[in-house]
Design goal:
The structure holds two protein chains of two kinds.
Chain A lengths: L10 H49 L13 E4 L11 E8 L2 E14 L2 E10 L4 E8 L56 H19 L1 H4 L2
Antiparallel strand pairs in A: 1-2, 2-3, 3-4, 4-5
Chain B lengths: L4 H11 L2 H5 L3 H7 L3 H24 L9 H23 L1 H7 L5 H4 L1 H11 L4 H31 L1 E2 L3 H4 L6 E2 L9 H4 L1 H32 L6
Antiparallel strand pairs in B: 1-2
Classes of the chains: A alpha+beta, B mainly alpha.
């Protein structure tokens, strides 16, 4: 009979003890992660909301409405007209109960490096309040001037030319970059990014016109 | 077994610099070093994760069975990165907006696992934490230098994006406003070439130092001729 203390552990015993240790470590670290998640959940939700409002305020004058914009949301299913394959939101801005504008999410599927996500505001009279890109991977220093933060022209960023335009002031068939026979300027060196944004904005304006009855209600 | 902490720190910062010598963590080095701010911020986040993961792994090293150490180390690193990601999102939101997409990448940075496996598994908690922090800061310095060179040639300005981290400050325009920019420096090939130049410079500095030591040694022994 050999001394049990000196017996090398059997393969089965080793596997079982390792499996037990692995389970203990997994449970312990999962608990730590869950704890952190619970501790940060409310702060993260709040800052995501502020971030969203800050962005919305860039496209829509906060003085022009008085409702809790983020609570007055239309949940959209997949909407190909806006390029939203996975659905999105439309927020309705009201002043004294009257609809004044909608803030819409839209996606330009044909950027130079994939999708470009946009947020834009369209007033009840069809005028664009503003457009901002929220997510994109366009080439730094070339196509990324669609983002006013990256645009070298700080006094008149490219994307600001949409502000105040409406289908009444500019017929919808002119909502194209100049290279495609439209009225929207672009800068030498990068046509694809501004073209994608311009076309997505035009589609969103068209959509807002078609769905006027439901959106401004 | 215990090592001199100064040696450990110096190893991490310079002698065994993660990017210049070990050439680990190339993914973040090349992807994030487009500006000083981006590079240093990710470098510091990595340093934080490395110090924590080295410290925790070292403290638990006697309880981790040898056969399953790699999955346990990965578990520790992934948990710490997740916690850092959540904590930064909650309490350092402006920086999180800049670095958000890169933080999960720290998990895939082989440098973190490499230091846990090569150092923390064999050394004490304090030395391991210092090693992780020094390796991370060495990486942050390299990312800062690399980012500075790339944004200088790319945009003609330094500290682009600093206003996102420290409100009220702004980038320093070095070259005149109508500098056309040199896109190549900002794109990934610019990162490869700049890093190669830095590695060459370090090797040159080291070769020069060791050859001057040799010359001195010869000079000290004229009688040998």
């Amino acid at each position: 009979m050999s001394d049990p203390l000196n017996k090398p552990p059997s393969l089965l015993g080793l596997s079982v003890s390792n499996a037990v240790m692995m389970t203990i470590f997994t449970l312990a670290f999962t608990a730590l992660m869950a704890g952190t998640y619970l501790a940060t959940k409310t702060t993260i939700a709040a800052s995501a909301e502020t971030e969203k409002l800050r962005l919305i305020n860039e496209v829509l004058d906060p003085a022009s409405y008085d409702n809790a914009l983020l609570q007055d949301a239309l949940q959209l299913g997949p909407t190909p007209e806006l390029g939203l394959d996975n659905g999105g939101h439309i927020w309705r801005a009201r002043k004294a109960g009257q609809p004044v504008a909608v803030v819409m999410e839209a996606v330009a599927p044909d950027g130079y490096a994939g999708k470009i996500s946009l947020v834009l505001a369209i007033a009840a009279d069809g005028k664009i309040g503003g457009v901002r890109v929220t997510e994109y991977r366009e080439t730094p220093g070339l196509g990324d001037y669609i983002d006013p933060k990256k645009d070298k022209n700080k006094t008149a960023p490219w994307i600001e030319q949409f502000r105040g335009k409406s289908p009444a002031s500019l017929p919808l068939e002119k909502w194209k970059v100049q290279k495609d026979g439209g009225d929207i300027t672009y800068r030498t060196g990068a046509t694809i990014s501004p073209r994608a944004v311009t076309n997505a904005v035009a589609r969103a304006v068209q959509y807002a016109q078609d769905k006027r009855e439901t959106l401004f209600r | 077994m215990s090592q001199n902490l100064t040696d450990v720190a110096w190893n991490g910062l310079w002698k065994q610099n993660a990017g210049l010598v070990q050439m680990l963590g190339m993914c973040p080095i090349l992807a994030v070093s487009t500006s000083i701010v981006n590079g240093v911020s990710l470098g510091l986040a990595t340093a934080l994760v490395m110090a924590a993961s080295n410290g925790v792994s070292s403290a638990l090293r006697n309880y981790i069975p040898y056969e399953i150490r790699i999955p346990v180390f990965i578990l520790i690193i992934a948990a710490l990165v997740t916690m850092l990601d959540l904590a930064m999102n909650a309490w350092m939101h402006p920086i999180y907006l800049v670095l958000g997409i890169y933080i999960p990448l720290i998990v895939t940075n082989c440098l973190v696992l490499a230091r846990v496996e090569a150092f923390a598994a064999k050394n004490g908690v304090l030395a391991s934490t210092v090693d992780g922090a020094a390796m991370g800061i060495g990486l942050a310095l390299l990312l800062g230098v690399l980012g500075g060179i790339r944004e200088f040639f790319g945009n003609g300005a330094l500290f682009n994006g600093i206003e996102l981290v420290i409100p009220g400050t702004h980038a320093i325009q070095i070259l005149s406003g109508d500098y056309p920019g040199f896109l190549f420096a900002i794109l990934p090939p610019g990162a490869f070439i700049t890093l190669a130049c830095l590695i060459a410079a370090k090797n040159w500095a080291q070769a020069r130092k060791s050859s001057s030591v040799r010359v001195e040694a010869l000079g000290c022994a004229p009688g040998a001729h």
